[in-house]
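Action item from last meeting closed. Structure (269 res):
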């Protein structure tokens, strides 16, 4: 085909790809903002009254009624920070033991734990699981509480659905911290963690499939944080070869992670 046709296809692909990147980034940002606001709300419950007067039914109701604010997330939950010295009393009050994420067995002894105590009904299988027992969740917890900012994991298979997704975590502090607070002050003031999973595999699929001409292009999203090891986050593993490829930038708001979206025409031109 002619140069002119080639240029035309390149422009069409670039426009479609940029539009998809913008939509995805916008929906991620909306969800992330709402989770941050929820972390602030839970934090206010820990400022004045200890123990917090927030209870699991109130959390479940509020998160169910505001689920529309987090369109790409399967649900949100709150995991409480528990020191080993508090474990027995905590387990007695809850009426369950702290469990390990993958085996669902009672956790061995550690210095501290992060068992989920409140959850949106859609992900209530997290309740009693120590979120520090999963590698991806644990890394997120450490980064979120040290920075006070939202942390995203690399793409991995989330619990239950086994879909490819990413987890978002915010620390919940029991004090109001100044923006200049040190890492030590932040860790010290940590009451727990608020977060949830983006079901990239099914919710992003749903979002993209509703766009015009979605059958004409193949979309992939990658985590490119580590430039020598690009991780697939969405789309077919092996995209059939196409002469035209467009890459659009994506910013999901966590400066520690880098992502991009790549589009190809689904048929040879
Ligand atoms: N949420 C949903 N599915 C998951 C998951 C998760 N984490 N981890 C693995 N599968 C309660 O950081 C605190 C949510 C983590 C917050």
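Sequence:
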């Amino acid at each position: 085909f002619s140069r002119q046709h080639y240029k035309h296809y390149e422009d069409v692909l670039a426009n479609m790809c940029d539009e998809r990147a913008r939509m995805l980034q916008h929906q991620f940002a909306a969800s992330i903002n709402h989770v941050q606001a929820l972390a602030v709300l839970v934090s206010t419950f820990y400022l004045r009254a200890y123990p917090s007067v927030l209870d699991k039914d109130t959390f479940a109701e509020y998160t169910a009624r505001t689920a529309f604010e987090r369109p790409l997330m399967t649900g949100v939950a709150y995991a409480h920070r528990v020191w080993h010295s508090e474990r027995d009393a905590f387990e007695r009050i809850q009426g369950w033991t702290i469990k390990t994420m993958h085996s669902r067995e009672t956790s061995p002894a550690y210095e501290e734990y992060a068992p989920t105590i409140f959850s949106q009904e859609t992900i209530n299988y997290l309740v009693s699981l120590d979120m520090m027992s999963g590698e991806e969740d644990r890394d997120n917890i450490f980064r979120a509480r040290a920075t006070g900012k939202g942390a995203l994991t690399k793409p991995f298979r989330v619990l239950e659905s086994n879909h490819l997704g990413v987890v978002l975590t915010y620390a919940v502090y029991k004090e109001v911290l100044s923006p200049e607070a040190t890492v030590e002050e932040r860790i010290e003031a940590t009451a727990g963690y608020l977060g949830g999973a983006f079901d990239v595999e099914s919710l992003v699929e749903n979002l993209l499939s509703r766009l015009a001409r979605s059958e004409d292009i193949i979309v992939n999203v990658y985590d490119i944080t580590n430039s020598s090891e690009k991780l697939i986050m969405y789309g077919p593993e092996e995209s059939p070869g196409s002469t035209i490829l467009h890459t659009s930038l994506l910013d999901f708001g966590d400066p520690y992670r880098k992502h991009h979206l790549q589009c190809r025409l689904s048929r040879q031109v």
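Note appended to the action item: The mean pLDDT is 95.
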